[in-house]
Structure formats: C-alpha cells, structure tokens
Amino acid sequence: MRLTVIFAALTLFALTAVGCTSSTQTSSQPPASGPNAVSGKPTYGGTLKIGAEAAADTVISLYAHSEGSGNDLSFLYDGLVNQDPNFNVVPWLAQSWTISKDGKIYTFHLRRNALWSDGVPITSADVKFEYDLTTNPASNAPYRSDYDVVKSVATPDKYTVVYTLKEADAPFLSSVAASLPHVPLPVHVYGKVPPSQLAHADFSKNLVTSGPYTLSEWKHDDHLQLTSNKRWWKGRPYIDQIYIKEYTGNEPVQFALQNGDVDTAYFLTTAMWESLKGDSRFMLIHNPADQFNWWVVNMKNPILADINVRRAVMYAYDRKTEVEKLFHHEDVATFSPIPWAQKWAFDPSTENAYQYDPAKAQKILEDDGWKIGPDGYRHKNGQLLSFRSGLIQGSANSVKSFELWQANLKAVGIKTDARQTEFNTFYNDEQKGNFDVDNGGFGGGGDPDPFIFLSSKAWPPNGLNYGHFSDPKLDALIDQARTASDQAHRKALYFEIQRLVVDDVPDFFDAAPYYRNVMNKRILGVNPAHSGSQFTATMYDEPIWYIAQ
After folding, report:
1. Which end of the chain has fewer CB within 10 Å, C or N?
2. What angle do CA 66, 69, 73 make, to 5 degrees?
3. Residue 61's CB: how many other CB atoms inside 10 A?
C-alpha cells in the first residue's frame, strides 16, 4: 500500500498559487474545544498504548512497504513536507520551497534547527542520499519508480535541495516529498553500509531518527517501544512513551481495547467499530477514507487474463449486499481506482458500474466457451474455471467478504477457494507473483494518481502493480494526468481513466470505505476530524496529545 505522513487530496495548482514559508514551531496547547479537548496546561509523561493488527517488518524507512511498518515509522521519521487536516501541504523538515513556472524544478530550504536523534544536523546531503539509495538497483527499494520523473537532485549548499524533474509532475509534493519511504536518511549512519546489504542491516539497537520519537526496543512480532525525541525540531512531545503491541488479526485488538490493554488501534473492522462505539471510555473517529477496497488480479494467470472472465466476475459479485451486511450501509460500492474521499477526481458514475447481474455474468461466460459441467462448475477445453482467493490471516472482515464472494462466484459456475497467510507472507507472495487474486485495500497517497499500482512502469520491484496489468492507453492517460498543470485538466483525465478502468477491469474494485477508530478519552488533545485512511492521518496533532494525570 502507499504510505504517507498525512493523507489528503492535493493539487499542484493550489500549491503554486500560495507562498510556502513557515517559522520554527514548538509544541502548542491543545484545542480549546472539541470532543476530546480540555482546559488547562498539558503535562509531560505517560505512555500511549496502540494495538496493531499487523507486525512491523522493518524499521528502515526506505523499505516501509507494509501498513504495519508504515504506521509505526510515522512516529520515527519526518518528510520534507506534510499535509494538514485541510489537505494543504505545509512545511516540515523543509521550512519553505519554490516551484518553477514550468513545474519542473522544486527547490527546498531545510530548517537549520532540525537534528537527527543522535544530535547530527539534518542536511541536504541526507535528502540526496535517500534519492541515491532509492534509485540504486542494488538497494532493491520498493518505491524506486516514484523517482522515474526525477532527472537530477542537487545540493547547492548544506540546507538547500533542488529536484529537477523530467516533466511537470502534479503529485510530486504529496506522493514523494511527503511520502514516508522518501524521508531523508542519515548518510553518516547508512552510508557505511553497502546498498545491497542495507535491507538486512540491523539498526534496531541504535536507530537514528528524525521524527518525534526514537526506537527504544523492537521485539519482532510482539511489540515496539518508542521514546520521545528531546531533539525533535518541533520540541519534545508531551507523551513520553508509545508502546505498540502487535497482534495477529483484528479480534485480539478488539479484546485488548475492551480490556483496557491499549488506548487505540491502527485499524478497526466494522464489527469492531459497532461493538466499541457505545463504550463511553472512547472518543469516536469516523470519516470517509482516502482508500478503496479491492481484489488484486494477477494477469499472469491465463484464466484471469481473459477480459471476459474478469467482466463476468464483476457482474457476479453482489457488492451492494456486501456493503449492507458487512458495513451497515455506510461504505459505498464503487468500481474506481480513485478513493471517494478525493471528491474532485472521483467519478460518481463508477457507483453504477457492474451492477449485480448473475444472468449477464453467465451469458458472458457461455459466449466465451465456458460450459457448466456435472460438478456445477464451468469448464473450457478441459480446464476448470477456478482461481485462488488470497486473504490475510486473522482478518474477520476478509473472511466474511470471501464467503459472499465465493457464494456469488459459485452461483455462476466459478470455483474459488481461500488461501490465508500471515501478512508478511501475503505481501512477499504478491511481490513474487505467487497469487491469483488477493483481497485488500489501497490508498492514503494524498493524491488520486494511480500510477504506482496501475501503470506498466510500476511492475515489481519498481512499484506495486503486482498483477502486471498493462494497457498502453491507460499508461498514457496516467502520464498525462501526472503532468497536467491545473486541476480541471487533471479531473477530466481521471474521469477518462476511470471509464477505461471500467472497460479493462485490471482489478476487481470493491467499495469505498470509512475509516473508523476509537481513542481512549484519557488521551487528550486529539481532534477526531484529523483522520483519513489510516491511523497516521489522525497523528497530525500527535505532538500536542497528552495524558490525563
């Protein structure tokens, strides 16, 4: 999935119309009003306890490809810029920046008071070092294709970084400069390790960070202990410790919340939300998510490479019933690669695409030569119409979705069985192409650009197009939308992209969800409106959170 510091819609037009400057900031008072605001002065101390449904697989930001690592590392690393709750790009490690009139040159001016947690200044050399590592094939960085648009990176002085792009790139600030994988890296530490060995290097005992917290302890598949960074450029956070307890799946997280073992979670299923929302101990967080749910399709499977099979699957899939039964009518059944929270780019007509029509699905398959056999399933030239459906182990929502999915497909003669694996195995299998269709969600990129998972340039290891889908026309439209200079032009292109996706069925898009979470009311200063597709969206105010004494 795409990982960012904060999740919000963004346009290059809006950025170039406003000057970007900021003075040094320090921890400030919490809001004076709101569901979890109180009067009085915040105090330092205490521990925030978070329940994670997936384990971290790295503490090196360059390799933060999973949701587990992405959420955890958002406490540890800062990007050049950030996004505020109003979807505006704001200064972060870069106190200001300029963009050339042609949109090809981004010049960032770094804060002079920003230090690594070991006291070494954060400089332009650290920014360029991350770029050099990511683009070096030896490092095998998962988001290398993000920099395909970059021609060069220069460091004219210690606190200035200049990105020169090959062409204008509208998502650059939100998808690269504010992106967790592309945060500056400490050249004085990582520069001592050959790029080919970096992914396997162990820095967990003395991790050097740039964000509000440092890593005190990491016990794999169990927990992470974070400590407030007294050298952080915004000032020491009020909460001294963050304890992230890792569980296998969602249900143990729910029990931990109910038992008071954790204060909040990275993610709640609808069932968890329904069971917890009446608990007076919790503040509720509930907003449209910058995310969509889907089944990723592997085009290397000959059966799934048949567009008629893919279209039949979509007509056979009763997504509205899924939304009604599993998500209590809140989520919206759509067929779009753009999250509905990105309203300016989302085409509402996609809600009408592939309405449930099993008779139409059966006709498509019959016309394509797939005939019902004595076993109740379809066959063609001696081949069974069958594929595996991958699920992350421990996800109750995924299992319930699969049960409906399996029944819908069986009704039209398609056989599918569940293949459940734990998260890291699930992700590694996707990287290797060892899957047929995989259930999941995607989003949080801060921009509607679908390049990273739909462009043929983003096949692994250069991106997240795990299914190896390819359509030259779609590639061209995506590239045009990335270089368009104004939002109206981009909107027209994204509507065209969505229409083409409906025709192509590159993946089985499912629904546009809400982000649901709870926060124990002992944690004060939290604004529930500051949330998007993941927990880190709520964290924009995190340095001013504090614990009731």
Report:
1. C
2. 140
3. 26
Q: Calculate the dihedral angle through the C-alpha atoms of 148, 151, 156, 160, rounding to the nearest 10 degrees.
A: -40
Give the closest residue to 108 by CA, choosing from 134, 131, 133: 131
Distance CA 229, CA 74 (A): 13
From residue 345, alpha-carbon distances to 53, 87, 190, 290, 491 in Å are 31, 14, 39, 12, 5
**Which of 64-78, 180-194, 304-318, 447-461 is least confident?**
64-78
- Reading the block at residue 364, the tokens are 């498509």
| CB proximity list for 4: less than 8 A, separation 6 or greater | 83, 174, 175, 178, 179, 180, 444, 445, 446, 536
Class of domain 12-250+515-547 (CATH, top level) = alpha beta
CATH number of the structural domain 291-512: 3.10.105.10
Structural contact between residues 316 and 410, judged by C-beta atoms closer than 8 angstroms = no
What's the pLDDT tens digit per position in 136-162? Answer: 999 998 888 889 899 999 999 999 999
How does strand 508-512 pair with strand 332-333? antiparallel
Which of 455, 447, 438 minimizes the C-alpha distance to 508?
438
| 197 SS3 class | helix
For the chain, domain boundaries: 12-250+515-547, 291-512
Q: What is the pLDDT of residues 111-145, one digit of tens each?
A: 999 999 999 999 999 999 999 999 999 999 888 88
In terms of Cα–Cα distance, which of 242, 455, 450 is closest to 347? Answer: 450
Give backbone dihedrals phi and psi of 124, rounded to 5 degrees, phi first. -60, -30
328 Rama sector, left if φ>0, alpha if ψ -120 to 50, beta otherwise: left
Residue type, 182: H
Q: Residue 423: phi, psi to the nearest 5?
A: -55, -50
C-alpha distances (whole Å) from 450 to each of 157, 178, 369, 426, 502 are 35, 17, 33, 22, 14
